[in-house]
């Protein structure tokens, strides 16, 4: 969808903002451009909508060389979201959102209808917020309106320049979550500029790590964190890149242990015997369809081994996640519930139990992921040595 071919931007004073950039962004892909201030990432973005013209090289949008496209027409085909949002203070939220479709010749009534749909999509009820003015909104709400306005003309490409940088950390995380959810629905081709490596890792399908006017590494977040291409990248992503990598490493079924399992209608005597046979301190409790229900400790089974069924003594399961959740979520869940393990269920079903993730298995999963990316193989092909 977007292709840079040997693009350079050099100013009259001799400053080179970007130097011989060549890379591609696939349709529907979200690429984060990350690096320190003055590294050329915003210049790169602004050359896509010709707010800045390159000195050398060519940029293609959906196969078309943009140097031959009228800049105004080009910008109307590209959504653009900036940190300051840039809403018109004299227009309502609904009219701000409808601005671009109306400029493109869409009837005002149709543009407003489209605007209402998009406000609802970004989590702002148009009946509540549509008639408000920008000054009546919080910073996070204004950012959502900015995203809705950028999507109003249904552009194939969305450019986002530090869009969440002006809000507090709590709101910023919420906006990131909402944007990821939105992107999963609209699948726009996105260039997202940020100076925050954690934001880049969290949002990007791929990351372009900028040095001074050049891209030092362009790869998936897990690869950038696990196998930095240069000492500069290693230093930029930080010594704690292993912890950052937890957020981009999903739980896989091969990471799980299989503990003793009992069912709700099993006699307690059966539960006690199964725990004793496997020398386990607890068992997972499932319903008749193998969906997760809870757990039972060995002490309870032994003390009540002759009485009733498991249903009467099972404990509620607090610590669980669907397969595919990140290792960071798993680690956080363990800490939140002071749990030595978490249950993992099928994300496509209604809670079918798959296994449990322990701290040791979490550590192994992270090590396998790093090794797999370094060798360009799947995690299941990697064996790690364990101490025990």
TrEMBL record:
Residue intervals of the ABC transporter domain: 2-237
Sorted UniProt keywords: ATP-binding, CBS domain, Nucleotide-binding, Repeat, Transport
Gene Ontology MF annotations: ABC-type quaternary ammonium compound transporting activity; ATP binding; ATP hydrolysis activity
Annotated EC: 7.6.2.9
Gene3D superfamilies: CBS-domain, P-loop containing nucleotide triphosphate hydrolases
Top-level EC class as recorded in UniProt: translocase
GO biological process: glycine betaine transport
InterPro entries: AAA+_ATPase, ABC_transporter-like_ATP-bd, ABC_transporter-like_CS, CBS_dom, CBS_dom_sf, Gly-betaine_transp_ATP-bd, P-loop_NTPase
Keyword Transport tagged: yes
Single GO cellular component term: membrane
Keyword Coiled coil part of the UniProt annotation: no
Ranges for domain CBS: 314-372
NCBIfam families the UniProt entry points to: proV
Family: Belongs to the ABC transporter superfamily.
Classification via PANTHER family: OSMOPROTECTANT IMPORT ATP-BINDING PROTEIN OSMV (PTHR43117)
Name used for this protein in its record: ABC-type quaternary amine transporter
The species this protein was found in: Streptomyces finlayi
Upper lineage: Bacteria, Bacillati, Actinomycetota, Actinomycetes, Kitasatosporales
């Amino acid at each position: 969808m977007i292709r840079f071919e040997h693009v350079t931007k050099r100013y009259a004073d001799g400053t080179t903002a970007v130097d011989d950039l060549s890379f591609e962004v696939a349709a529907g892909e979200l690429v984060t451009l990350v690096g320190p201030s003055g590294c050329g990432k915003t210049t790169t973005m602004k050359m896509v909508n010709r707010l800045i013209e390159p000195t050398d090289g060519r940029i293609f949008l959906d196969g078309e060389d943009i140097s031959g496209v009228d800049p105004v027409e080009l910008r109307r085909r590209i959504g653009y979201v900036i940190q300051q949002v840039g809403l018109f203070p004299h227009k309502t939220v609904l009219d701000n959102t409808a601005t671009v479709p109306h400029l493109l010749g869409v009837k005002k009534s149709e543009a407003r209808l489209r605007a209402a749909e998009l406000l609802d999509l970004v989590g702002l009820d148009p009946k509540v917020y549509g008639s408000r003015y920008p000054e009546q909104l919080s910073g996070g709400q204004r950012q959502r309106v900015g995203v809705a306005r950028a999507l109003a003309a249904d552009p194939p490409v969305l450019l986002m320049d530090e869009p969440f940088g002006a809000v507090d950390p709590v709101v910023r995380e919420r906006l990131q979550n909402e944007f990821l959810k939105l992107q999963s629905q609209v699948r726009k081709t996105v260039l997202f500029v940020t100076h925050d490596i954690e934001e880049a890792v969290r949002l990007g399908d791929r990351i372009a790590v900028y040095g001074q006017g050049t891209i030092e590494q362009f790869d998936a977040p897990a690869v950038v964190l696990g196998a930095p291409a240069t000492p500069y990248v290693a230093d930029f992503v930080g010594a704690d890149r292993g912890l950052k990598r937890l957020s981009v490493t999903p739980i896989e079924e091969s990471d799980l242990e299989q503990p003793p399992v009992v069912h709700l209608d099993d006699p307690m005597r059966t539960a006690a015997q199964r725990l004793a046979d496997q020398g386990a301190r607890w068992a997972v409790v499932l319903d008749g369809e193998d969906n997760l229900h809870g757990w039972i400790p060995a002490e309870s089974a032994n003390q009540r081994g002759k009485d009733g069924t498991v249903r009467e003594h099972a404990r509620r399961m607090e610590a669980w996640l669907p397969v595919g959740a990140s290792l960071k979520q798993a680690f956080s869940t363990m800490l939140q519930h002071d749990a030595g393990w978490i249950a993992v269920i099928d994300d496509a079903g209604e809670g079918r139990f798959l296994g449990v993730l322990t701290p040791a298995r979490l550590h192994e999963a992270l090590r396998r992921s790093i090794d797999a990316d370094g060798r360009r193989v799947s995690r299941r092909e990697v064996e790690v040595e364990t101490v025990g």
